[in-house]
Amino acid sequence: MSQKTITSKLKAASSTPRPRWQRVARRFGRRPMAVTGLILVVSFVLFALLGPILLTDPNQQDFTAILQTPSFAHLLGTDDLGRDVFARIANGARVSLMAGVMSTALALIIGISIGLITGFYRGWVDVVVMRIVDVMLAFPFLIFAVGLAAILGASLTNVIIALAVSQVPEVIRIARGEAMAIREQEFVRGAVADGARDATIMFRYIAPNAMGAFIVQATVSIPAAIIGESTLSFLGLGVQPPMSSWGIMLTSAQQYLAQAPYLALFPGIAIALTALGFNLLGDGLRDVLDPKETR
Amino acid sequence: MSVLAVEHLRVEFGTENGPVIAVKDVSFKLEKGEILSLVGESGCGKSTVAMSIPRLLGDSNVTLGGSVRLNGVDLSAFSEKRMQAVRGKEISVVFQEPMTSLNPAYTVGSQISEVLLRHEGLSRRAALARAVELLELVGIPDAQRRIAAFPHELSGGMRQRVMIAIAVACDPLVLIADEPTTALDVTIQAGVLDIFRRLRDNLGTSIVLITHDLGVVADIADRVAIMYAGRIVEMAPTVAIFAAPTHPYTRGLLGALPSRAVMQTDGRRRLTDIPGLVPSPSTDPDECQFAPRCASASGACTAARPAADLVAVGHSVSCYHPAVGAML
Amino acid sequence: MLQQVITSIVTLFLASIVVFVGVRLLPGDPALVLAGETADPAVVAAIREQFGLNQPIWIQYFNYVGQALQGNFGVSTRDRIPVAEILLQRLPITLELAGLAILVGVLIGLTAGIVSAVKRGSFADYAANVFGLIGLSVPHFWLGMLAILFFAINLQILPASGYVAFTEDPAENLRRMILPALVLGTGLSAVLMRQTRAALLGQLSADYVRTARSKGVSRSREVKHALRNSLTTVVTVLGLQLGALIGGAIITEQIFVIPGFGKLIIDAVSARNYPVLQGAVLVAVTGYVLVNLAVDIAYAYLNPRMRLAGGAR
Asked: Minimal Cα distance from C134: which residue of A?
């Protein structure tokens, strides 16, 4: 800057900074789309938790009431075995919630740990891990998940494992990037200079500051896993009957598409609304948490 | 007739937190071949004045008031379509940020040609040939080769020269330069100012130079308008501003020049600040907005806004307590 | 550039090991499948010998890769048809489906993204955003079922399923490909729309766009300036979305009963047709890696800054 430049030192008095989370919540609350997403997600979780308790047995067959259209007795109708569709959707919600949340949690735990370590230490560990990540990413997501599910065998647990492993490489990439960026920042360098232990730096300093990115990733990952579970189950590689899952319900609905289209309608709407909720929530959180996007 | 006459310009931005009146009431005239400098602290509205003359503020939440006359023709009545024909042809702009003001995806030649193709009806080949001439005009060596360069292959100073080449391509009546040297090294600044001077001398281009750098002003401007809180508080020939600053704010600005700076105990040169805060731009009260920061303020200053008074030929000031005499 | 080619080759080499080992890890014994479940042990042993299944796995791997590089992927366990022949027969079908889907996706996604960014805050922007979010949230297979329900069962204007080769009857081929391509293209267009909009919005507020405006160019030329710099994003997204497209193709082919690559893979998984599965996945992964390599190279041509840096990031 020029020697003759007038540097104005006058600065508008800044208001006292509020706690960060409070500011984030306030900005989040101003976005109707984001709030809609939050409401959808909360309703989904409550429905998954309470629905199966309050509703009738999803496996209760009633051959006197097969393929009935929605009525007061059966709000969303009955399927080909006379089972209540609403109760089965509630049970499917629980399966979706488990698959979505647990596979994402698993992927985040594994991915963040590996990503932070490789991003922090770099060197040959980083080279090896990134090579593995590249190879895993060379497989399209669904092919990878289908392959894993086929190897492990069809069950809810295995679906969760398959979806988690399929999502790990992406999480590693994100955590590694965050670790590399944050470790160069002043406060981390200060901690290093003060002789803090590596683990302390990684999990006390870097991880909390990357939390925004991880939360956003979770909102992307959960709906992907929910759709992934329903897709695998639809293909017969996931949850097995008589257990109810939105994907399985749609598989059997396919046979009755002409006779009972509502059988295909409701589980699909359930998947779409849930995924929509998470996507809206994720968009909102990204806007609020990522300073780059919210100038 | 003046080449450019800005009358009672008012610019209001609608924001989430209410309106911001960036420019409250600004009038000035620009003669042929004249270099007028708009000076003030950041936030005083000088850049907004500059951008509102060719109507580049763009946003739909901007309200413009007053008029801008080019050779007597009122541009404020022009449609966007007619304004497009004026921009780059009669009025052109050099921006502050040479690093980002050029499109990274196109060659220098095609970006200069674009304005020629738009306004001069040249063929592609003729436009490119003219672009080479323009690059030579703004002092870029090896112009024939540089024409095929992408912006990232040029230094900041070179890019600013390219920006100037674009701006002067169609021999504009008025060139608006918004802090054209701020992002450049001192050594390069002088070269860029030289180009402006030559343009004025050779082509008679009138220039509005926005800056907060009084050194640049002293170097090149014929006349200076000092802006504070969206208004011009003092306007005078450059010589008069430096010899006999009259508005307390102008005197404060000149006091902030490093050449008059005080040595601090820590050995660093410190600028003498003007005490107090820049007023909020959301209101426009009928008072002198500098009064809270002014040493000579009185009851009159907050009772009504001072009108512009002539204190000498071509030297006007808006103040109830104009200072007289040179600064110590 | 050379470095990217080498990286891709290494990745492909490692991926081929993963595929090979993965297929071996599938439950069941390939020799048993070949021999038939009830075959006597002597026959099974003979088959093991014949196909080299009794050799160490790494020798089996190198034998396989050596043969595969010459275009020999073994024979299908179901009908003893060479796998290469099956792959060549099925690949064009999926390529046609994917090509049409990309066409749909780019046409809708790019257009909607541009309109929505340029007319920010308008009804069109709002509509495009809602479309983008819904497109992102609806799973392919349900969308496929809805399409069949609406167009095939209710309106009865398009067939619900089945495939006719283009060479046999081009018009009928396209008629049967419309719904699958639309279903597969919707998800892609939603992602493309969102990314194009975000990239273009960022570029539209760039300083160089203001420079363009100061030259007196029309709004459409301003947009062109910004769009030129958004294209790298679009191309990258397209490359990355190819993975989702392959996954979507698996599902779409399953629903519309199209005998393409996706259906081949799923059928091979359930029939434990190892050679077919192995070959198909290997070819799919190779295609995916090569396309992303092509994207990296295209990048250098779209972004002059990288051209100079030798294509390195």
From this structure: A276
